[in-house]
Amino acid sequence: MRHTFQALAFIIGLLSVQPAFALEKERNEHPPMMQGLLSPDYEMNRDSSGTNWIPDSSPMHSLQFKLGQWDAMFHANILLRYTNQNTFEDSKRGDEDIDSLNWFMLMARKPLGEKGQIALRGMFSLEPITVGGGGYPLLLQTGETWEGQRLIDHQHPHDLFGELSIIYSRRFNQAASGFVYFGLPGEPALGPAVYFHRPSAINIPDAPLGHHWQDSTHITFGVLTGGIVFRDFKLDASFFNGREPDENRYDIDGPAFNSLSARLSWNQDENISAQVSHGQIDSPEAIEPDIDVRRTTASVIWNRPLDGGRNLALSFVWGRNDPDEADAQDSFLLEGDYSFGKNALFGRMELVEKPAEDLVIANSDDIFNVAALSLGAAHEVYRKDNFFASLGAFVTVNIIEDELKPFYGDLPFSFQVLIKIAPSLMEMKGHRM
Predict the structure, then answer these.
(1) CA 229: distance to chain centroid?
(2) How many CB atoms lie within 10 A of CB 360?
């Protein structure tokens, strides 16, 4: 209950300051769409976490305003929820909690001369308070530690500082631009856009079970990335800190540059964004400091605005970890979101190969296939100025191998109910973005 009151207090505080943004919008009802952070040849809808891309047609829930000479934008997502994992198996693994998942992003950019621009971006989360260091219940989730022990059946909270970055980009000619990105923390050129920035997962509360096979490097304490944009292609490479954030979620970890990655991205048209990437990650887990991981990912994100304000988004993600002293493990994800009027339907399917060691299964060196099928729905129940609230529900069924059933039961079932608060969909020049 302590986390509940903290989350409620924070939500009330956020709503109390939002009229300032509303006044700015009244002064500038239809501001021009901001240019992309990595090139002026596309609009900002394409930019996602780090130097990642999503489709140009992706919906943008944000507030746009001016800070002196800077064009600025504010994004946020707050989920207040009750979750119950492995509902019908009280004697097996599983947990329940009332918590708040949340993130906030503030970005500002301004031109530097005729061909250059600079951008600053900050990403923050109060999950160290509203979730706690042990993370939120999520059956079959693995990755990172708490109090020196592996986190099992829980998703770790995000750090208070998820990104503090600076980007400089410069146009070479009408077809090509170059950019440099530095983050402490930041996100290297590895993997797809992090799950909560994908339009297909805009309403899905949980991290994927394959998070540490696909997009877990989105909070990295020390990232230096350089890249080029040529028409609708982007090639970027990073030198970064391979270690996951430590258990102190309030501080800024010391930077290190010991890992490498490269990524090729292609936005074929306004509705598709694809990428392939590979990285050599040095000692990612504190509990296994002598093990390095080679990670390879590929993804396709598709978004399609439809008549009547409807929108359909789908993502397919594949990620592989190839650790030292162990077999390679694959993960597959398919997720989608269909928004229509005040309603949304959303879901996710996953298949992940997880080592027995990660699942804390004693006396086994096996790699287990774990699958999850999740479905959810939400309905908008409140709107004021530039913010809205929706009420939703989300259910998950896990399919597991026989060796795991003594720990989880035959067919684990989980559910949650949630309230979401976020900025409204941006309207630009008479149409929704």
Answers:
(1) 23
(2) 14
For residue 350, count other CB atoms closer than 10 A to its CB.
22
- What are 303's strand-pairing partners? 313
Using the structure block, give the residue that is written with the tokens 């990595």: 38
Q: Give the angle subtended at the CA of 326 by the CAs of 322 and 330, to the nearest 5°.
A: 40
- Tell me the DSSP string of 398-429: EEE-GGGHHHH-SS-EEEEEEEEEEEPBPEET
Q: In the numeric block, which tokens belong to residue 319?
A: 């990620």
pTM, two decimals, is 0.91
CATH of domain 2-432: 2.40.160.10
Residue 131 and residue 157 in contact, taking contact as beta carbons nearer than 8 Å: yes
Distance CA 125, CA 164 (A): 12
Q: Is 56 exposed, middle or buried (0-12, 13-18, 19+ CB in 10 A)?
A: buried
Q: What is the pLDDT of residues 230-266, one digit of tens each?
A: 999 999 999 999 999 999 999 999 999 999 999 999 9
* Cis ω before 185 (30° cut-off from 0): yes
Q: In angstroms, rounded to a whole number, what is the distance separating the alpha carbons of residues 242 and 213? A: 14
* 17: three-class secondary structure by DSSP: helix
**Helices in 171-219 by DSSP H: which ranges?**
211-214
217 phi, psi to nearest 5 deg: -80, 15
Contact 192, 275 (CB under 8 A): yes
| Cβ pair 331, 352 in contact under 8 A | yes
**At 426, is the pLDDT very low, low, confident or very high (cuts 50, 70, 90)?**
confident
Beta-bridge partners for 320: 296, 330
Contacts of 329 (CB under 8 A, 6+ apart): 213, 320, 321, 322, 323, 352, 353, 354, 355, 367
Strand partners, 136: 155
Of the candidates 59, 87, 385, the residue with the CA atom closest to the CA atom of residue 198: 59
